[in-house]
């Protein structure tokens, strides 16, 4: 199977339109889809290099998870969310338009 994102989009669109007799609830109707000139992936990367790259990927994921750890930033974010919610409540209540609420908060 080649590029699967485009294929998935095409299958869903074709199924929604009832084209080609595809039925996503019956996978056997899709068995001949995109099989011409099919290529199969066979890894050639040495095992130790593959494991090293996976380890690097795991380290990157851990770093990304720790990206936002500053407590002060968390407190600021919570305060901004509270102010936005307060402004939205005022606007919905008809007390002020969005522009008026923004002007008063300055």
Could you explain the architecture of this structure?
The chain has 106 residues and is mostly helical. The chain is 58% helix and 0% strand. The chain has 4 helices and no strands. It is flat and about 60 Å long.
Blueprint of the fold:
Elements: H1 4-17, H2 47-65, H3 71-92, H4 98-104
Strand content: under 5%
Structural class: mainly alpha
- Total number of helices: 4
Kindly report how far apart the N and C termini lie: 57 Å
Profile the largest sheet.
none
The gross shape turns out to be flat
Share of helix among residues? 55-70%
Strands, count: 0
**Which residues sit in consecutive blocks of at least 5 with pLDDT less than 50?**
none
Cα Rg: 26 Å
Order of helices and strands: HHHH
Average pLDDT confidence is 78
Overview in brief:
The chain is mainly α and 106 residues long.
Core attributes:
single chain; mainly alpha
